[in-house]
Design a protein that fits this description.
133 residues; Transcription Regulator spoIIAA; 8 strands; six-stranded mixed beta sheet
């Protein structure tokens, strides 16, 4: 069997706002309960993610099911600078409010990488498989 390399090893880390899991070439970023995702939290999350990936790019599932609201400034940041080393984004939602928030993010903030919204983690992972290295 061929050596699958570092990107296919399983890695895990937990920070104040996130749980990270890299598995089979996909990164899962599960945001913890956040009432208002503002620019400070957004920048902290991106900084933590960049430290975790150590220069490697991944397709990512961003589970925002525990986020209540976000500011425009945070969404703008995440759509642009916050997408560094993210080859594609699957946003996982669980409610009509989150669906509206994710649609708004995709249509208005226009992320720099391919981005889609999902209600099922397996479907999100399947879609991201086309972006694995």
């Amino acid at each position: 069997m061929a050596n699958l390399g570092e990107s296919f090893k399983t890695k895990f880390k937990e920070t104040e706002h996130l749980k990270f899991l890299c598995q089979d070439g996909v990164m899962y970023c599960d945001l913890k309960e956040i009432n208002m995702l503002d620019i400070v939290i957004a920048k902290t999350c991106v900084k933590d993610r960049l430290e975790f990936v150590a220069g490697e790019s991944y397709p990512c599932v961003f589970d925002i099911t525990k986020v209540k609201q976000s500011t425009k400034e945070a969404r703008d940041y995440l759509a642009n600078e916050g997408n560094e080393l993210v080859s594609a984004s699957a946003i996982l939602v669980s409610s009509p409010v989150l669906r509206m928030m994710a649609n708004f993010y995709i249509m208005v903030n226009k992320p720099l990488n391919p981005t889609r919204m999902f209600t099922n983690r397996d479907n999100a992972t399947e879609w991201l498989s086309q972006f694995k290295r």
